[in-house]
Amino acid sequence: MLDINNLSLSFGTQKVLQKLTISLQQGEIGCILGPSGCGKTTLLRAIAGFKSVQAGSISVNDIIVSDAGYKMPVAKRKIGVVFQDFALFPHMNVLKNVAYGLSKLSKSEALKLAQEAIELVGLNDAKSKYPHELSGGQQQRVAIARAIAPKPDLLLLDEPFSSLDPDLRERLSSEIRSIIKQQNITALLITHDQTEAFAMADKIGVLHHQQCQQWGTAYDLYHEPATEFIADFVGEGVFIPVQVVAYENDSESKIEASDDKLLWLETQLGRFLLPQEYIDNAAFKVGDIAKMLVRPDDLRHQDESVLKAKVVGRSFRGAHILYRLSLNQGEPLLCLAPSHHDHQIGESFGIHLEVEHVICFPY
Ligand SMILES: Nc1ncnc2c1ncn2[C@@H]1O[C@H](COP(=O)(O)OP(=O)(O)OP(=O)(O)O)[C@@H](O)[C@H]1O
């Protein structure tokens, strides 16, 4: 439905994005995530038609809307945009704000579509109110109703919840996701808030160093990050050094991979025997030292473990406590433990690394 192919965007000699390729099926919600200045807004503006393209193409429903030699006018694109700052007209009530983009239709048709969109976002009782009479969340609902009222082919949302408080942001984002899904709208959202990306998106792309470093599900990004930057940027975790100490072909191994090469990985948390295929993203040879990603949920609290680590920091999160642990003076580790395992700073407890698959990067 949305196909972006080998897209490059720049301002004069400053390259912002290069060879970006992502796509969305009808009804999918995509999210572009990345640090400040990585080119999220520029990408959104190029899709909406406000920015020309230096190479590659953008297609919507198999029709090229932008390439290096062509830019379809914004008004012809059938793309709805929701901006960060709501951009509502202060002198118009909710109904008029929502109907504003429908002026090409007959008055009765415009009214019908505006009413439908207002109902969809749950503002039926507020349609005669003016923006200053609405809360931040309500104003953002108006902005969304206005963008979806013309039934666009594609909806673009530019950090739509960033000015709302965290509680409201979470509620509204999951509600807006339901509306988008229920209407089978294809949408692309940009944010620098990964919780929002995880809650909203079917597919997430992470921009860094002018590239989309990975385009996949939240699960892929968290558990199978393609680059060290994504491993670090998405979710929490630490890198610990590992050394590949031997290859073995051990058919007695509990790991059912007797045809595959096995690797011994030596770490500060013990020695692990793993089939090479479990090391998702790198090829290592004996003697190599690598960085292994350890997520807080990979490290289990285990009383009987002989491996004890000392609590150097803790953050209570309700159901869980996130511990910062020190082990043998090495780099601090993170461990997410159920909060009934309540340890204070300075105490020690047993830990065990659950190794299912391993993400390693070269040093
Ligand atoms: N109109 C412009 N003219 C020149 N350079 C620009 C223009 N707009 C953006 N840039 C530059 O392009 C780069 C990408 O900016 P962009 O606003 O797309 O980043 P972003 O990821 O949306 O950042 P943020 O999260 O801070 O909003 C930045 O280096 C910015 O300075």
UniProtKB/TrEMBL annotation:
The gene is potA. This is Spermidine/putrescine import ATP-binding protein PotA. InterPro entries: AAA+_ATPase, ABC_SmlMolc_Importer, ABC_transporter-like_ATP-bd, ABC_transporter-like_CS, ABC_transpr_FbpC, Mo/tungstate-bd_C_term_dom, P-loop_NTPase, Transp-assoc_OB_typ2. Residues 2-234 form the ABC transporter domain. CDD domains: ABC_Carb_Solutes_like. Keywords: ATP-binding, Cell membrane, Ion transport, Iron, Iron transport, Membrane, Nucleotide-binding, Transport. GO terms for molecular function: ABC-type ferric iron transporter activity; ATP binding; ATP hydrolysis activity. SUPFAM superfamilies: MOP-like, P-loop containing nucleoside triphosphate hydrolases. GO terms for biological process: quaternary ammonium group transport. Pfam families: ABC_tran, TOBE_2. GO terms for cellular component: ATP-binding cassette (ABC) transporter complex.
